[in-house]
Amino acid sequence: xxxxxxxxxxxxxxxxxxxxxxxxxxxxxxxxxxxxxxxxxxxxxxxxxxxxxxxxxxxxxxxxxxxxxxxxxxxxxxxxxxxxxxxxxxxxxxxxxxxxxxxxxxxxxxxxxxxxxxxxxxxxxxxxxxxxxxxxxxxxxxxxxxxxxxxxxxxxxxxxxxxxxxxxxxxxxxxxxxxxxxxxxxxxxxxxxxxxxxxxxxxxxxxxxxxxxxxxxxxxxxxxxxxxxxxxxxxxxxxxxxxxxxxxxxxxxxxxxxxxxxxxxxxxxxx
Amino acid sequence: xxxxxxxxxxxxxxxxxxxxxxxxxxxxxxxxxxxxxxxxxxxxxxxxxxxxxxxxxxxxxxxxxxxxxxxxxxxxxxxxxxxxxxxxxxxxxxxxxxxxxxxxxxxxxxxxxxxxxxxxxxxxxxxxxxxxxxxxxxxxxxxxxxxxxxxxxxxxxxxxxxxxxxxxxxxxxxxxxxxxxxxxxxxxxxxxxxxxxxxxxxxxxxxxxxxxxxxxxxxxxxxxxxxxxxxxxxxxxxxxxxxxxxxxxxxxxxxxxxxxxxxxxxxxxxxxxxxxxxxxxxxxxxxxxxxxxxxxxxxxxxxxxxxxxxxxxxxxxxxxxxxxxxxxxxxxxxxxxxxxxxxxxxxxxxxxx
Amino acid sequence: xxxxxxxxxxxxxxxxxxxxxxxxxxxxxxxxxxxxxxxxxxxxxxxxxxxxxxxxxxxxxxxxxxxxxxxxxxxxxxxxxxxxxxxxxxxxxxxxxxxxxxxxxxxxxxxxxxxxxxxxxxxxxxxxxxxxxxxxxxxxxxxxxxxxxxxxxxxxxxxxxxxxxxxxxxxxxxxxxxxxxxxxxxxxxxxxxxxxxxxxxxxxxxxxxxxxxxxxxxxxxxxxxxxxxxxxxxxxxxxxxxxxxxxxxxxxxxxxxxxxxxxxxxxxxxxxxxxxxxxxxxxxxxxxxxxxxxxxxxxxxxxxxxxxxxxxxxxxxxxxxxxxxxxxxxxxxx
Lengths: 271, 353, 334
Prior knowledge:
The complex is a heterotrimer. Chain A is an alpha/beta fold. Chain A has helices at residues 2-8, 58-66, 88-93, 111-116, 133-146, 163-176, 193-208, 220-226, 249-257, 260-270; strands spanning 18-29, 32-43, 47-52, 73-78, 81-83, 96-99, 122-123, 130-131, 181-185, 212-217, 229-234, 237-243. In chain A, the strands form three sheets. A six-stranded mixed beta sheet of chain A has the order 6-9-10-3-11-12, sandwiched between helices. In chain A, a hairpin with a 2-residue loop joins strand 11 (229-234) and strand 12. Chain C is α/β, with parallel strands linked by helices. Chain C folds into two domains: 53-156 and 283-303, Rossmann fold (3-Layer(aba) Sandwich); 158-280, 3-Layer(aba) Sandwich (Rossmann fold), CATH 3.40.50.2300. Chain C has helices at 3-35, 65-80, 93-105, 118-130, 145-148, 158-171, 187-199, 213-226, 238-250, 264-271, 283-300, 322-330; strands spanning 53-58, 84-89, 110-114, 135-138, 153-155, 177-181, 203-207, 232-235, 256-260, 277-280, 310-311, 315-318. Chains B and C meet through helix 4, helix 5, helix 6, helix 7 and helix 12 of B and helix 1, helix 2, helix 8 and helix 9 of C. Chain A: It comes from Terrabacter aerolatus. Chain A: GO terms for molecular function: ATP binding; ATP hydrolysis activity.
């Protein structure tokens, strides 16, 4: 499956090269401060894990990068150029694809339509150009099979797939359409162990293909399996920002939980 | 979930694991199937009980009746697939005709100019509906209920103000009448059968709508916007533009039927058209459109309109008391909704394999 | 559909909107003089400057040209006698009762009301009587107006009108009539058809949706195809008569058409001999007399009708008198 990913990944990506650089980025909604002083660099070929409890500011951070809400403090650079996204489309055009936990796909639509949604293949131009349906079905089927996502029928509504499969289709779609940065919003939150494993494998595959991955989660174990760099948010600010070499799973877990009582819990859980 | 193999697949080994769904499931997953079965059953039923229905002429009368509802229902169906409602669709028909008739009559202007102006005006109403819905996030049910009342009142008030009466003057002597009558309200003979031109238009609009929904990216977007607007937006679908476009489509086809009514009857009563918005919605729902959006198709909506037209007239052909028609319509609607629910469950149920 | 594209289409639409607004403004500016003189008749007379305020309350459903004529008649009477006329309407009986009560509360000098639903309005009429405000009834409620407490009644007897029409059809050789009811649940319309049936026993009723002309046409077309023995169609309103003409045309029916009430197009159709005759209840007269009678009652203590209903119809309009009536129809007074 790594073959497939590298096939579509931008050949211009060099591991370690910064793709998104955030400097002192903050966001206020009226009088409410959701995010403050965030410094974050997303590098090609690395997984940047953003951890935090509910309400820590994770989703605000995603929204800024995904173009749903522009930031109003600090600067964000993509490929060295300063940007402020006004719509998801702008973000997509910069090669930033976001896969949301619960709204990744349109469940009543067929798998292949979901795969190509927003980037349909058409013959000709203009609003009435016909879709190349046969091509789209074939490509979606091939791509998914190459990545090991096997659906019974490419024509079935995507809602009939399992949660893990849906996430994988969404990730495969993002990669196929040449995403350089992949933002994964809690991709494993609603999944069982086995399905989480599948999703984590794709995350690693995307990283190895040279993409910059932002992995949002509140599960330090999942983060530690794939992450190169870890940021923990608390009340809209970064409380930890370390490379993998400088931090262990224990510290991550403790920081996430915010104290010793959770150390106990983790002991209990490890029994 | 058991299909999600954890090893990178090599194609031949996987082939046995990949099956297509059984034909019965795939057939039932199509929105129009329930309506088609119902249409055939009702058709045969009335062929048996209503001797007067057994003639080509009667069949084309039914098609005409269906087309006057069906044309607007095409757009209402698309709008509902896109996840929105339009309760003003019935009065827009009358508004369109009134604007055309009064503007031209009072100023003595060629009717074609008035028809174009009326089109622009109708599209503007559709745009306004759509814009308010996407801008405020207030449910379209409420926004268009507001437009419905505004238009209903304005239809009467403005007409009364301009003509001194609540109906428009007869326009059949004015310049441009012939052309517009030919486009919107003419009929022609095939053998002994009179075919109203709206029937042809209806078929064309249904075909166009089916094409757009199934074969173009806009169609893909309409389903996505109705099925899950947030994820559609996240992958770059211009959700707001699609929704506004759908509302404008409704007002466009409303205008079309408004033109038909005006040029067929030459005058319009300002209070007309009220209540038809529900018929459009019923046609769409009976035709398999999901009330919550994201599911349905143009053929289904056309069948829904046909069932409506057939039922309303066949009760007359059968010589029954037409007072019962509405009750019958209600039963049809309830049955359709239940069939839809069943079909949807069947087709989207997780296949465990 | 990139954002720029959307914005451009917005501008286009906005431009069109301005054009539409301009055109509308032009329309009302140019259109007013042609038809503003709906008062008709001899509006020139100076009359009495009585200063009374009368309220007229009806069960009008907005959008029916019939009521324009009632109002035109009432306005003419008001104008002639220097009366301030307050018109209000609501098809819902409870709301109509409230409107009457409003008139009582605002201490008008007299009330003219329709009594389509006498039982629902009896309370409001009584409170008017208690307040010493005279009430006259018109248009509907011929059987109950005295019981409810109205002093006089001006209107048509629907059953009588229907019966007369039925007899006239029978006399002209009609065998089977189709009576077209355009609104469900209306006592007055049902009474008309019942009257027609009394005059011509082979009469069948059909219910249509009067708010949707195309559906009226196809329903009548279907009925004519189903029953070829129908040789007379009776419609209960002028717009429906015009729909019936379309249906008869489409079904190549040889049936003859009779209608209740009049409008310009129906009057023209009578002149063109497409409609045999119209049973007119003369709504203009109803509105006019109701206000005039209130005036006379206040001014001079008069009571019109000798304790009985004053009938404004049925008045027949056919090819023999249409030439005289057509100009009045065009003037919205007949």
